[in-house]
Each structure stands twice: as C-alpha cells, then as structure tokens.
Design a protein that fits this description.
two-stranded antiparallel ribbon, binds tryptophan
C-alpha cells in the first residue's frame, strides 16, 4: 500500500506532460541518459533517505526535521528545511494545478469528439483557444484546486489508496495502447531514435529568443534540468515522500519500495516519450515546442485511431487522476503543519492552504496569455517558467541534498543501518557513500556550473 501511495505521488504530470516536453527541448537521447543516471545515482539514494527520516519522525516534515535534529543534539534550524519544503510544495502546486486544468479541459474536448479527424493545425488551434483564454484557464485551475482540497480535507489515507490501486495499472495499459498506435504512424523509428540515440553535441545548448532572433550558446543547463527533473518526477526534496514515509510500517523495506517506485515512475515516462515522439515526427511537428507538446500531439492520435474518442477521454481522465494523487502530496506538508502546530481542523487547513495556492496559480494562468509578452519576462522566462525553474531545479535539489547530508552525516550510522536493514552490508556501504559524497557533490557541481559560477 505504501508503494502504491508513493507511486501515486510520483507518477503524474511530471511523467506524461513534463518529461516529453523537456526531452524535446533538450535534444533527446543524451538528455534522457542524463535523467536516467540521475534517477539511479541521486534519486533512489535520496528517496531512501527521505522515507527513512519520515518513518523515524512520524510527523509533518517541519516537525520531523526539528524533532530528529533535537534528538541528535543538532541545531533546531533544521526545521527550516521543512519550511522550504512547504514553500516548494505550494509553489509547485500553483502551476501544477493550472496544467492539470488543461488535462481536465481535454477530458471534455475528447469526450465531445472534438479531435475527430483533426490535422496538426486544427489541434494547435484547439490548444491555442484554451491557453489563450485567461477565463477558461482560471476556471479549470479553480476546479482542479477544489477537487484537490476536497480530498485533502478528508485526510490522506482515505480514498487515495483505493483510487491508486486501479489507476496505476489502467494508466500503464493505456500508455501501451498509445505506444501501439505510435508504432503505426510510420515514424516510430524516428521517435525512438530521438529518444534513445546519443547526440551529446546537440544537448549542451541554451537558446534564447531575443527580439525575434534565436541565440544559442554552450550551457550546462540541460544537465541541471535533467537532475532537477529526477527530483520532480520522484516527488523528492520537499517532504512529500517524508509524509508518506511517516505512514510506512516498520517492517517494510525502504530500499525495495524506493526501487519499485523509481521503476514504475520511469517506465511511465519512457512509455509517454515512445508514444509522443513518433507522432511529433510523423506530423512534422517541432519536438521542442514546449509545455503544449502532449496537448498538440496526442489528440492527433485520438483523432485518427479506432475508438479514439473513447481512448482519448479515458486517457485524459487517467491523466487528471494521476495529477490529482500527486497534487495531494504537494500540499500535504503544509496542511499537516497547520493541523499539528496551529490546531486547525483538516478542513480549515485545506481551505487556507488551497486559497493561497490558487492565488499564486493566477500568475501561471496569465503566463500563457496576458503576460506572455517579452515585457513581462525576466531572464527570458515567463512567471510560469521562472517558478518551474526555481522549484524543480533549485529548491528540490537543495532540499534533497540537505536530506542526504542529514541522513548520511548527522544521523548515527547505527540508526540508519537499523532503519534501512539492507540485505547485504555492501549495499548499505554503497548507499551511505552515495548520500554522503556523491549526491551532495553532484548536485552542487551541476547547479554551480549551470548557473555560470564555474
Ligand atoms: N512527482 C509528481 C509528478 O511527476 C509531482 C509531485 C508530486 C512532486 N509531489 C511532489 C514534485 C513533490 C516534487 C515534490 O508529476
């Protein structure tokens, strides 16, 4: 049950919406390889550390970090790590909800048969008609936030477990159907080639459009984006997995759970890539077209495949569900803290945090229409781009490293050895080496490089 709930948090828009579009923007195969290496060498060890801290603390992340620090005679300022997590969760959910709103809108477009027979231009117009309208985006964002707070108000464990039990397998099967369709587009080889062939020369570029001309130069940014996405897609670095860890029974294996979650999460992302890029190339679309990528490709498939109307509706329903189970975990650290420390009822805590997230989300709503012009950009990025960059590429890796440092350097060896109970001493030594040395060094080198410090 723990694995299912944590997989429900991990598998979401990050896998089906974000992974394909950032892979498209960053040149394909070499980027995918960097992402996979980050999952293995950074994501899995930090996930083990984060679950472990949650299970020892058994409270909301802020209080867990404070208690664990106090128990080891450390500075109570470790509670700040919990605070940063709460802030990251609020900021991420604010734009996550807007994108989930797109998926919600597409449930009805698919259901109404609006994709039937559309060509690439028709699909692009349909998408433009949605994101160009602040009113529509605001309405869908509001509905999704309302749905999320409704579940959060009832407590995390109820309902969620039942939903995830059938959701995950169905989503998986539907992704296979989509890949099956992609095989018949005539560009399956080209899609796979884009996704899996290494062209390192093409990856390390950062392009910016200034006054209508595109300027590209060498940059480590794609590596930072790949690493940031490893944190984002596994829900690491802000306390979400810590919350689930606090519900995990003592006898369950943390390592096995982490590996299964990573496998499930990565397979969904790779299947999404295998479904989407063949459609991109078969229709002469642009792989680097940005956050709209899946909304401008998958409807083409649904518009032409047998039973496309049914599959399309089902697909977007499942995508909304997957986003829903992730959204709950993004807001839970904030809600849990309000309940524990402020004595709020769950309902009141949900309403208060939900309203704050909803307000911040309006900035993302406008990023695609009213504020999409250059005069509203900072460093060439919209409000949404900035928020995404700051959270996924800075706050989550920073939070993850602090978790790794806490688990690897400050917790006693006996304590972590006892929690992890790894089958073989060599496995424990490997884990400890990774969280003590590799993850902190890797994260700092990548971050400082990408930010141009070196
Ligand atoms: N992992 C989710 C996804 O891929 C998003 C998510 C849920 C998340 N909880 C999180 C990201 C906590 C970072 C931190 O869609």
């Amino acid at each position: 049950m723990f694995i299912l709930a944590a997989a429900g948090s991990a598998v979401g828009l990050g896998n089906i919406w974000k992974f394909p579009y950032i892979t498209g923007e960053n040149g394909g195969g070499a980027f995918v390889l960097m992402y996979l290496v980050c999952i293995l060498a950074i994501g899995i060890p930090i996930m083990m550390a984060e679950i472990m801290l949650g299970r020892r603390g058994r409270k909301s992340p802020i209080n867990t970090m404070r208690d664990l620090a106090a128990a080891d005679g450390l500075n109570p300022a470790w509670g700040l790590l919990g605070w940063m997590g709460v802030l990251a969760g609020v900021l991420i959910l604010s734009y996550y909800s807007v994108i989930a709103g797109w998926a919600l809108a597409y449930v009805f477009r698919a259901g109404a048969g609006l994709f039937n027979g559309l060509d690439a231009k028709g699909v692009g117009d349909l998408f433009g008609g949605l994101v160009g309208s602040p009113e529509k985006l605001l309405a869908w964002h509001s509905i999704f936030m309302f749905m999320t707070m409704l579940v959060v108000a009832q407590g995390v464990k109820n309902g969620l477990e039942k939903a995830v039990r059938w959701l995950m397998p169905m989503l998986f099967v539907l992704m296979l159907v989509m890949v099956g369709y992609a095989m018949n587009t005539g560009a399956f080889d080209k899609g796979l080639d884009f996704l899996f062939s290494m062209r390192f020369g093409e990856v390390f570029h950062a392009c910016e459009t200034i006054d209508g001309t595109q300027i590209c130069e060498f940059s480590w940014q794609p590596l930072l984006i790949a690493m940031g996405h490893a944190f984002f897609t596994l829900s690491l670095g802000m306390g979400a997995i810590m919350v689930y860890g606090s519900y995990m029974p003592k006898r369950a294996s943390i390592a096995a759970a982490s590996i299964w979650i990573a496998i499930a999460d990565t397979s969904v992302a790779l299947l999404a890539g295998m479904a989407i890029f063949p459609i991109v190339f078969a229709n002469g679309l642009e792989p680097g077209s940005g956050p709209g990528l899946i909304f401008q490709t998958l409807p083409l498939a649904f518009g032409h495949m047998p039973y496309g109307q049914l599959f399309g509706t089902l697909f977007f329903v499942l995508l909304v569900f997957a986003a829903w189970t992730s959204a709950i975990s993004l807001i839970e650290p904030a809600v849990a803290w309000l309940v524990e420390n402020r004595g709020y009822s769950r309902l009141r805590a949900s309403v208060v945090s939900g309203v704050i997230v909803w307000l911040v989300g309006i900035g993302t709503v406008f990023s695609f229409n009213l504020w999409s012009g250059d005069q509203y950009k900072l460093f060439g990025k919209t409000f949404f781009d900035l928020l995404d960059f700051l959270t996924a590429n800075i706050m989550l890796p920073l939070g993850g490293v602090l978790i790794a440092i806490f688990a690897g350097w400050l917790m006693s060896r006996a304590a972590s050895e006892d929690e992890l109970k790894l089958a073989h001493p060599a496995l424990y030594v490997t884990w400890r080496f990774l969280v003590r040395f590799i993850t902190p060094l890797a994260v700092f080198i990548v971050m400082l490089n990408a930010l141009g410090v070196f």
